[in-house]
Structure formats: structure tokens, C-alpha cells
């Protein structure tokens, strides 16, 4: 009998030790979902956060602002990512928006396009089909090819709201990511598109709007007109798990500001 008791105790101690090891190996997780325009910003923040917190599992699912808002609302992710402000009905449904940063929406053309500047009114006329040829705005005699984002895109929402073209744009193509817009414009000499300043590459040319080029400074001081917020979306009455809350606090801290700047956006703090 004595030997049985000892064996049982030993077995119980082994189970407890294994359970303890399991807890120490798991440091928690953070799941984010949403805006493709926020990829550069969330990428650097996620990388830095996991470097500071070994063992944490950080994931980012680039599905678009609308999908990210839906995901957090349905409890599919911890934090939704949106590159547009929340709508009144989204706030009323129990969501909270925290501004992480501000981003310029760059107007991009092919590098061979001679146009250097467009006004807000010209952009509006171009995207609604009133102006259809580049020659009308100082370019070559060729038809303008309009490239934009899909209906749920925060970038599209910001662009159309500021240019007063909501539901009026005559797109040739509506693409599902910032990267696709940049690639398409880079490959078509007659194309024009819009993309997050934080994501723009050398393969396209950024033009001025009303004489102002989008930069960190012109977004920060408001002189560049086409800009929008990068937002962290959470459920108002739901407490984040400890790891997700730690990431949230880190992302909006002064410590993260330089990383946000390095990704091409202007930190809100």
C-alpha cells in the first residue's frame, strides 16, 4: 500500500510540473484584422512587440477596414484595424475607436506621366468621369484609366469623402488591396490611383494635391488635404486579454511613435 501511495504522489507531481511548464511556455496571443493600408505600421509594431515579449503570438490578417470592423464585432479577433472613422451605427453597436496615427492618401500615377499636380476639383472631375483625357490637366492626349479600391476599403472611403465623389466614381478597376493598386498603376502609363502614403513605393509617382505633396509634415500640419486616421477598433464593453491589452497600450505609447514614423505615418500621440 505504501508503494502505491508514493507512485500516485509522484504521478500527481509530474502532472503539476507539466502543467506548469505549459503555462510558462505560453505567453499569450494578439490577433488583429483589417486595413491593408495599415500593414506597414502594424508590421513594425507587431515585430517590436514580439521582440520585447518573447513567446507572444502576434497575427495580422489584412482583409480591409470593413472586414476588420466586422471581425472584432463578431469576436473573431482582439483588435480591428480601420483606415476610416467608425460610422455612427458601428459605434452604437458597441465598438470603440482609438486613433493610432494619421495617414496621407497619396494620389499616384505612372512614373512616365508628366502631370505633377491636381486640384481637389480636378480629382473630383476625373473620378466622376467629367474629365476623361489627360490632356485636360496638362498631360498627354490619352484616356485616363481610373483605379480604385473595393467598396469596403477605408482608403476609398477617405478619398471619396474628401473629394466629394461618394457613389459617383467611374472606376475601371476596383482592387482589394493597396499593393494591387500600386502595382496596377505602375504598369499602366495612363492610370491614376490612390494609396496609403505609408505604403507607396518608387514604382509609382506621387503627385501634389492643390500644390502640396503628402509628407509626414504636411499630413501633421493639415496642409495636405487628403488624409485619414488609422484606428484601433475594440469592443466597448469587452476587456481585452492581458497580452492584447499590453500590445494596445504599447501601440499608442510614446515609445511606439518613432516606429510609426518609420512606417510612413504620423503618430496620434
Describe what you observe in this structure.
With 269 residues, this protein is of the alpha/beta class. It contains 10 helices and 11 strands. Helix content is 37%, strand content 23%. β1 (29-34), α2 (39-52) and β2 form a beta-alpha-beta unit. The longest helix is centred in the first third of the chain and has 24 residues, at 2-25.
Range of helix content:
25-40%
What sequence of helices (H) and strands (E) makes up the elements? HEHEHEHEEHEHEHEEHEHHE
**Strand segment tally:** 11
Radius of gyration: 23 Å
What is the level-2 CATH architecture name of the largest domain?
3-Layer(aba) Sandwich
Q: pLDDT below 50 for ≥5 consecutive residues: which ranges?
A: 1-25
Summed up, the helix count is 10
The averaged pLDDT comes out at 90
Q: What structural category characterises the helix and strand content?
A: alpha/beta
Give the full name of the CATH homologous superfamily of the largest domain: Periplasmic binding protein-like II
Beta content comes to 15-25%
The major β-sheet equals: 11 strands, mixed
- State the domain count: 2
Shape: elongated
Question: What is the level 1 CATH name of the largest domain?
Answer: Alpha Beta
How many angstroms does the end-to-end distance come to?
A: 68 Å
Q: At the third CATH level, what is the topology name of the largest domain?
A: D-Maltodextrin-Binding Protein, domain 2
List the helices and strands and how they pair.
Elements: H1 2-25, E1 29-34, H2 39-52, E2 57-62, H3 65-73, E3 79-82, H4 88-92, E4 95-109, E5 117-118, H5 120-127, E6 145-149, H6 154-162, E7 173-175, H7 178-186, E8 191-196, E9 205-209, H8 216-220, E10 227-235, H9 242-251, H10 257-262, E11 266-267
Amino acid at each position: 500500500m505504501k508503494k502505491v501511495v508514493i507512485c500516485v504522489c509522484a504521478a500527481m507531481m509530474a502532472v503539476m510540473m507539466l502543467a506548469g511548464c505549459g503555462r510558462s511556455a505560453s505567453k499569450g496571443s494578439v490577433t488583429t484584422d483589417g486595413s491593408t493600408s495599415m500593414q506597414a505600421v502594424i508590421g513594425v509594431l507587431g515585430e517590436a512587440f514580439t521582440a520585447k515579449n518573447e513567446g507572444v503570438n502576434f497575427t495580422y490578417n489584412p482583409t480591409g477596414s470593413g472586414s476588420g470592423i466586422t471581425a472584432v464585432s463578431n469576436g473573431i479577433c482582439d483588435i480591428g484595424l480601420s483606415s476610416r472613422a467608425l460610422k455612427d451605427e458601428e459605434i452604437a453597436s458597441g465598438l470603440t475607436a482609438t486613433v493610432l496615427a494619421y495617414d496621407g492618401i497619396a494620389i499616384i500615377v505612372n512614373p512616365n506621366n508628366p502631370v505633377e499636380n491636381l486640384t481637389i476639383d480636378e480629382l473630383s472631375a476625373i473620378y466622376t468621369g467629367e474629365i476623361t483625357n489627360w490632356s485636360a490637366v496638362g498631360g498627354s492626349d490619352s484616356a485616363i484609366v481610373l483605379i480604385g479600391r473595393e467598396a469596403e476599403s477605408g482608403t476609398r472611403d477617405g478619398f471619396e469623402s474628401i473629394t466629394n465623389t461618394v457613389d459617383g466614381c467611374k472606376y475601371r478597376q476596383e482592387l482589394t488591396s493597396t499593393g494591387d493598386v500600386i502595382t496596377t498603376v505602375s504598369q499602366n502609363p495612363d492610370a491614376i490611383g490612390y494609396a496609403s502614403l505609408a505604403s507607396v513605393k518608387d514604382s509609382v509617382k506621387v503627385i501634389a494635391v492643390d500644390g502640396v505633396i503628402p509628407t509626414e509634415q504636411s499630413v501633421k500640419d493639415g496642409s495636405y488635404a487628403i488624409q485619414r486616421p488609422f484606428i484601433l477598433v475594440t469592443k466597448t464593453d469587452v476587456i481585452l486579454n492581458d497580452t492584447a491589452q499590453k500590445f494596445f497600450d504599447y501601440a499608442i505609447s510614446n515609445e511606439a511613435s518613432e516606429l510609426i514614423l518609420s512606417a510612413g505615418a504620423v503618430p496620434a500621440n
